[in-house]
Amino acid sequence: MKSDIRVCSAWQSEHDRPVYTLSATCPDCGAEAVNSAPAPFDPTNPHGEYRRSLKRRRRQ
Ligand SMILES: [Zn+2]
Fold it and tell me: How far apart are alpha carbons 14 and 41 in whole angstroms?
């Protein structure tokens, strides 16, 4: 069975980081919890990683 992890829809204004929950509302602030599949924000930020590797390569 597919897990149904949701994320607080107001985490960007209410929390420092995404708050995940299995319920329909955020356990911290009570805001609506939305399906986390279509992420509104990418915490991995591949561009930051790419920039870091470029910087490292330039030092050599
Ligand atoms: Zn919240």
Answer: 15
pLDDT, tens digit, for every residue of 23-39?
A: 999 999 999 999 876 55
Compute, in angstroms, the gap from residue 38 CA to the centroid of ligand 1.
17
Spatial CB neighbours of 40, under 8 Å, sequence gap ≥ 6: 12
Torsions phi, psi for 13 (to 5 deg): -105, -20
Q: Which amino acid is at 33?
A: A
pTM over 0.85: no
Query: CA–CA separation, 37 vs 34, rounded Å?
Result: 9
Distance 44 CA to ligand 1 centre (A): 20
